[in-house]
Amino acid sequence: MARGCEFLGTDYAIMGGAMSWISERNLVSAISNAGGFGVIACGAMEPHMLDTEIAETKKRTDKPFGVNLITMHPMLDELIDVCARHEVSHIVLAGGLPPGKAIEKIKGFGAKLVCFAPALALAKKLVRSGVDALVIEGMEAGGHIGPVSTSVLAQEILPELAQELPIFVAGGIGRGTAMLGYLESGAAGVQLGTRFVCATECIAHANFKKAFIRAPARDAIASTQIDPRLPVIPVRALKNKGTEEFNRKQIEVAKLLDAGEIEMGEAQLQIEHFWAGALKRAVIDGDVENGSIMAGQSVGMVKAEEPVADIIATLMQEAATAIEERRAATAA
Ligand SMILES: Cc1cc2nc3c(=O)[nH]c(=O)nc-3n(C[C@H](O)[C@H](O)[C@H](O)COP(=O)(O)O)c2cc1C
């Protein structure tokens, strides 16, 4: 983990993946205080809200943490300015290829830039454009997902690029043994989201946490695309009435498109607003029937509410035990 730790400035190369509504001051500072790397999810926040969130996180930890910004946010420029004022050390850009201007601006104030790479060709492009590290996230993950599994992305991208820059693997990691496997394949570290949702320090509603503790892996399903014209990014969440609601929303938006009442850009925006609202309903209000319970397939390995420090200690212990067992077997 040494390379990842050096890049992040942490004891462990474990990033707490930004989760909208969930990765706020409490969870982020708890992850950083436990030796991992917390990342604030900016999501749809406006600049003044992000400003407060960063300030409040700083009050709770003096350890490094990052900020995740969505590239299609209409106020991306102003959000970067907020991060610059706070001298945020690491920015994670999510949601499509980042505009060159944003890359320049982030690197201009001295932050390290981390981007998501959904395929080898795009990973190479990102390296050329000067990003400092990559996250490769497979379709096992919770939230918005790409089409390829973590294991395949890791096999495609790590051998080609792991020498050039630190790469963090995300999606479906629930145990230290899986973490170890990716580290041994060349990853500098890992990023976990689902595993941190039931942390004691996480502000998610008790109903949201209960749903996680009960759910097996097979309940965390990817949304279906109802209309091929609507380029909807699939979202992995626990199946409930909210899942059906999303299908209805897609039909409604497709009809508006047919009638020429909205353009494609507006259609996509409506879909993204749907998700943001539905996730808030479940995470904050605790409506786990109608809201969206975004969760990755590793949800089946979330068994109890426990402090972040225990979650990280368990992951590290599982990895250490695997190494010890192997050494013992070789020595025997
Ligand atoms: C509830 C939820 C919300 C998420 N929101 C975001 C987000 O706002 N931005 C982002 O880049 N990734 C988001 N993610 C993805 C996580 O940052 C992380 O990469 C992912 O959870 C890792 O896979 P895992 O869930 O299998 O551990 C979200 C994931 C979950 C479960």
Describe the structure.
The mean pLDDT is 96. With 332 residues, the chain is an alpha/beta fold. The chain contains twelve helices and twelve strands. The radius of gyration is 19 Å and the shape is globular. Strand 8, helix 8 and strand 9 form a beta-alpha-beta unit. The strands form two sheets. It has an eight-stranded parallel β-barrel, surrounded by seven helices. Strands 7, 10, 11 and 12 form a four-stranded antiparallel β-sheet that branches. The protein folds into two domains: 202 residues, TIM Barrel, CATH 3.20.20; 79 residues, no CATH class. 45% of the residues lie in helices and 14% in strands. The site of flavin mononucleotide has 27 residues, from strand 9. It comes from Parasphingopyxis marina. InterPro entries: Aldolase_TIM, NMO. Keywords: Flavoprotein, FMN, Monooxygenase, Oxidoreductase. This is Nitronate monooxygenase.
Topology, element by element:
Elements: H1 2-8, E1 14-16, H2 25-33, E2 37-41, H3 47-60, E3 65-70, H4 76-85, E4 90-94, H5 100-108, E5 112-116, H6 120-128, E6 133-137, E7 143-144, H7 150-161, E8 167-170, H8 176-184, E9 189-192, H9 206-214, E10 220-222, E11 235-238, H10 241-258, H11 264-283, E12 293-294, H12 308-331
Parallel strand pairs: 1-2, 1-9, 2-3, 3-4, 4-5, 5-6, 6-8, 8-9
Antiparallel strand pairs: 7-11, 10-11, 11-12
Bound molecules: flavin mononucleotide.
Flavin mononucleotide binds near residues 19, 20, 171, 173 and 192.
